[in-house]
Amino acid sequence: MQSFDLQDVRLTDGPFKNAQDVDMTYILELEPDRLLAPYLIDAGLPVKDERYGNWESIGLDGHIAGHYLSALAMLYASTGNEELKTRLDYMLSELERCQNANDNGYVGGIPEGKVFWERIHTGDIDGSGFGLNNTWVPLYNIHKLFAGLIDAYRFTDSEQAKSIVIKLGDWFVDLIAPLSEAQIQNILKTEHGGINESFADLYMMTNNETYLKTAEKLTHKAFLEPLLNEEDKLTGLHANTQIPKVLGYEKVAELTDDKELAEAVQFFWRDVTQTRSVAFGGNSVAEHFNPVDDFSGMVKSNQGPETCNSYNMVRLSKALFLDHNDVSYLDFYERTLYNHILSSQLPEKGGFVYFTPIRPNHYRVYSQPETSMWCCVGSGLENHTKYSELIYSHNQNDVFVNLFIPSTLNWEEKGISLTQSTKFPYENQSEIILNLKNKQKFIVNIRQPEWAENFEILVNGKVQKMNDKPSTYRSIERKWKSGDKITVRFKTSTHLENLPDGSNWVAFVDGPIVLAAKTSTEDLDGLFADDSRMGHATHGKYIPLDEAYALVGDKDSYLSQAKELENLHYSLDSLELQPFFEVHDARYQMYFQTYSAGEYKEKQAILKQQELDAAALEAKTVDKVSCGEQQPEVGHLYKGEKSYSGYDEDRFWRSTRGYMSYQLSNKNREGQFLDISALDDITLENIDISINEIPAEIISSENKTIRIKLSDNELVNVKMSSTNDKPTPRFYELRILKD
User: At 447, which helix (H) or strand (E)?
Assistant: First the structure.
């Protein structure tokens, strides 16, 4: 099974074509010279424009440029717009100029990159946090450049991009050559993106065995080992640190015919898609994999599934489908494409979503070109450029129709063109008209999705007799001629889908389309992101969960409460359900609790008290940081040495044999106390704690919590050190309280 080149397929009018057009506008609003500024700075060259702010100025400098290369290349291939190619060529020429100035093959935008990489080269490595040597995910950062350069070559045949990335690859091979396996594994503890995949790609581009060996050397063994044993050890791990590793494993497995590694990849995919993904295809809460038997944290959080996770799970699903010719991978791909990827961009003015909460009556935040430089902006730039990548596929002679998306296909090599016209999901049919240079015999394979009922195919108006086998292909072999018309018709039905933990939260799903209801436009604080560090997360108030809509009655009545209107809209009492990808600029409800009439009041009373307790604590909280969670730690300027994090007892934590520090904000000096909480008993003699470089005034230490009296400062720099080179307790939270 092979995919067609993006150049071979063109989208036509529909939601996906609109998303592609809106993405192009956003891409063209970004200024190449501002994206390139970190690279010029690191190369010692004068900048042509100031660099962007936000994440591009606080440690992840240069990462968006790598995504931008990929987006330009793929969108150019998908549309043929010459302005995109002009920008791509300019970006490449400037990167080559930086590479030449560095004179060793290196090019990058990482702050103080030359000093940083020299420390790594000499074996001075502290991989005890998600970052490396107190630098924000530098390997993740440079992987984006590797991927962007590789995409520029893959989709536009740019020899310049190939030259730059080969020199960069050779530099990296030399960089890690002196390091022992233990040192490399220490590096790989930190978030490193898909750097292993990039070296597998370099091998595919050059047939240079060194690159394949490097890809294998960059295998994070502590993560892979459980997968090889088909053990789920994902809970508590940072989700998008892990998924790109698996993309690399998948490619290496195919290149080396490593069946054990291939099976580990498939185990990971099954585990994430079947036990860790919600109805719209996303996974994780606050960027981390939650327990498979408890999704309550996701239900309560404003930081639901991250778009980057789905970006990479879609990529993994595509790779597995092409390698194994198994349409079950397409079922997940399709579900995630329609419900998460398509919904992650504002369809009118543009802007990308980072977190998609499933918390009832909450909302999402959209990026803006001048203020937002998050990881999900980078992957978002790419997401909407390549919708045509898997609508069709082929083997040596035959065509496979995988998705019902309006588009045209031109298989020039075979003299086969076709046009697919469909209004799916609003209408349950698709029409395909063939345009051939000559009459010829081949097979057209139409995917029958798992959700399609009463599936039938007509050729020139005549129904084709076939076995009904959902989640497979229906094959039509004949001698085709120009003008032949294939009509695909089917039905869909609405069903309720529980959260994977089996709790009483359900979502309405019609066919592959997740439905949700707009509930209000109240207090959408930060709907369009500012340039703050956490601008990608919502700041508006939480509506108590006990005020959410619920389904009450007999189980058999839940589904019947939704009354069909038109265009996939349903009335549900006072709500109107509609496709989630249509829901924007509003609070919404996707998941509903289900109760029998007898248990409703009792369960709601318990939920109400839980919400009151949580609200009371937040009301007296000025600032807090969850130890061991990536974004809260970055947002609070975490630094540390000999420090380690983990997940136990349903909490993230961090411990240190050296030191760990954070900067918290005591806004308006309202906070009177700092509480430091741990999972373990605390012995104060083994810990030094300072506040703004002054020994802390400890009031009490009981119930595994240290309480510290705060002075009159708006910035609270907290440093905790081990006094005996032994691990401190596992600290899970620092919280500034008003009383």
Answer: strand 440-448
By CB atoms closer than 10 A (0-12, 13-18, 19+), residue 695 is exposed
* Cβ 419 vs Cβ 381: under 8 Å: no
Q: Are residues 118 and 165 in the same domain?
A: yes
Query: Distance between CA atoms of 372 and 386, rounded to whole angstroms?
Result: 22
Please enumerate in sequence order all residues whose Cβ is within 8 A of that of 728, keeping only pairs 6 or more positions apart, or say none: 655, 656, 657, 660, 686, 687, 720, 722
Q: Crossing angle of helices 138-156/82-102, nearest 10°? A: 130
Q: What is the domain range of residue 45? A: 31-195
Q: How many CB atoms lie within 10 A of CB 651?
A: 18
To the question of pTM greater than 0.85 for the whole model, the response is: yes
Nearest Cα to Cα of residue 545 among 486, 503, 511, 502: 503
Please name which of 170, 229, 222, 155 lies closest in space to residue 4, comparing C-alpha atoms. Answer: 155
Q: Using CA atoms, how far apart are residues 534 and 635, in angstroms rounded to an integer?
A: 7
Q: Taking the C-alpha atoms of 559, 560, 565 and 569 in order, what is their torsion angle to the nearest 10 degrees? A: -10
488: helix, strand or coil: strand
Residue 631 has what pLDDT?
84
As a whole number of angstroms, the distance between CA 559 and CA 278 comes to 19
**Is residue 438 situated within a structural domain?**
no
What is d(CA 508, CA 494) in angstroms, rounded to the nearest whole number?
Answer: 7
Q: Which of 406, 390, 399, 416 is nearest to 6 (CA)?
A: 390
- 599-626 confidence digits (pLDDT tens): 999 999 999 999 999 999 999 999 999 9
Place of tokens 């992987």: 143
Looking up residue 716, the CATH number of its domain turns out to be 2.60.120.260
Decide: residue 717, CB within 10 A, 0-12 exposed, 13-18 middle, 19+ buried: middle
- Tell me the C-alpha distance between 354 and 106, whole Å: 31
Q: Is the pLDDT of residue 468 over 80?
A: no
Domain boundary at 565, 598, 631, which? 598
Nearest Cα to Cα of residue 568 among 453, 426, 423, 452: 426
Q: What are phi and psi of 652, to 5 degrees?
A: -80, 155
Residues 517 and 664 in one domain: no
Least Cα distance to 330 among 196, 219, 452, 496 occurs for: 452
Residue 694: both structure tokens together: 């002054």
Q: What is the tens place of the pLDDT at every residue in 562-596?
A: 999 999 999 999 999 999 999 999 999 999 999 99
Closest to 156 measured CA to CA, from 87, 248, 227, 243? 87
Number of other residues whose CB lies within 10 A of the CB of residue 396: 7
Amino acid at 69: L
User: What gap in Å lies between CA 329 and CA 317, rounded to an integer?
Assistant: 5
- 650 plus 546 within the same structural domain: no
Residue 536: half-sphere exposure toward Cβ, Cα within 13 Å: 28
Pairing of strands 440-448, 399-401: parallel
The whole-angstrom separation of Cα 256 and Cα 203 is: 11
In a shared domain, residues 655 and 558: no
